[in-house]
Amino acid sequence: MTIEIAHSGPVFAFTLFLIAMQWILALVAFVVALVIIVQKRKVTIPDFGWLWALVFAQIALRNAMPATPPVGTLGDFLSFFWVLGIIAASMVALVVVWVVRGE
Question: Which helix (H) or strand (E) holds 51?
């Protein structure tokens, strides 16, 4: 006897929406860091705070997924780990630019 359990369509759609939101936020962080670096704008402390807040927002978005999946599920490999890496790389790039420019 086999019992199969599957999520409903709206639950699946909500999960895809959260994954899309994670990617959008990460791409926005990357573009903001890129604009600051390429256009040689001043790096300010709120830029770091915003990126750090995005890291914690990603954790909250992941925990909002239906049934709060354990770490290492497909959603993590599709978005969560990549998104955290992009945001972290953006922050490291801004810190390097901030130190090098002496702002």
Answer: helix 45-63
pTM equals 0.82
Running DSSP on this structure, what letter comes out for residue 41? P
Residue given tokens 């922050």 in the structure block: 91
What percent of the chain shows pLDDT beyond 90?
50
Question: What's the CA gap between 30 and 67, in Å, rounded?
Answer: 30
In order of 12, 14, 16, 17, 62, the CA distances from 68 in angstroms are 13, 13, 14, 15, 7
Token output for 56: 């914690």
Reduced 3-state DSSP string for 58-78: HHHHHHCCCCCCCCCCHHHHH
- 3-state DSSP call for residue 43? coil
CB 65 within 8 A of CB 76: no
Q: What residues contact 49, with CB distance under 8 A and at least 6 apart?
A: none
